[in-house]
């Protein structure tokens, strides 16, 4: 595909040549994907900022139970239609895809409604509140003829792309261990991070969130490591979760705090590969370190930085018998890389990747739903191991996982019944 959206100042002739399209390419480029959004809370603003940078994505409708919030949201983004009943949005024939921005245990019920309505579905992370629910959604999506994508932003970091390429090309030799790390010293949603525009108390409840730190932020870090490792097959897991620090009674007033603030795990995968996991919302420690991958020939350290930050990747190995460390930077390199390979535009984030696939601009995409499911599997293994007080097998995790998705949602407009 041509270098759409990349033009060097003062070099209009070059840009014109690069933008010369075939008729088929013009049709693909101009194929608009019309999107509806269900849920106008905090994360929806991040999604909208990304859609604004995707030329052929147009958000045409939104739904939220809070009419006042919905109206303000629509005014902010210039979205033409709004609904307080998601079923009215799903009836529209002119909507191609729906973006689900709800609490964890509403992801599966709403995603199923979207797919049943004949729309493609992009859903916030985590995939569900339990492995059982996530597996049900994944299996259904494979039978309905529509695309399901889960928001896993770290897969599309240049850090992840280059790390995977290095591992696949043998720069690390045989990989035998990895670490997934997510660190917050004191940032529990609704307790240490507050405010109506930020985090609601539902983040802390088993009913809506399912779990805490592992599902909220761990999904980013675990999925990143599993992705660059080629999504290995899980065999066994041990782990524990904690909620020990406590909170100011004034912050807890009127709230339930039912989920973990710290999750720890050790997972064994096929061919002897192991993975240790640490994910904290709150911990009395100043620095935990970074995620990493090590092999027989080298190692990679992956400091977790958001897409708008200057990302780095650190590579350690031996050169002439001497320990060596190289820092790979992406701030300037990515501009050069996108000039050489314009298709990287379609991997700038998961929403751009999804829209590009739906509009036919790329022939295949990363199966984020499968990766999200495998992330759920190891995370649920940690919870089950802690509950049983022993290591658990993958067969036990799959057999003992139970649905905790919301079937009946009470609203100011009556109850929504989700049938599955």
TrEMBL record:
UniProt keywords, alphabetically: Oxidoreductase
Organism domain of life: Bacteria
Protein name: Gfo/Idh/MocA family oxidoreductase
Domain Gfo/Idh/MocA-like oxidoreductase N-terminal: 33-149
Tagged with keyword Oxidoreductase: yes
Gene3D superfamilies per UniProt: Dihydrodipicolinate Reductase, domain 2, NAD(P)-binding Rossmann-like Domain
Pfam families: GFO_IDH_MocA, GFO_IDH_MocA_C3
MF GO annotations: nucleotide binding; oxidoreductase activity
GFO/IDH/MocA-like oxidoreductase domain residues: 162-300
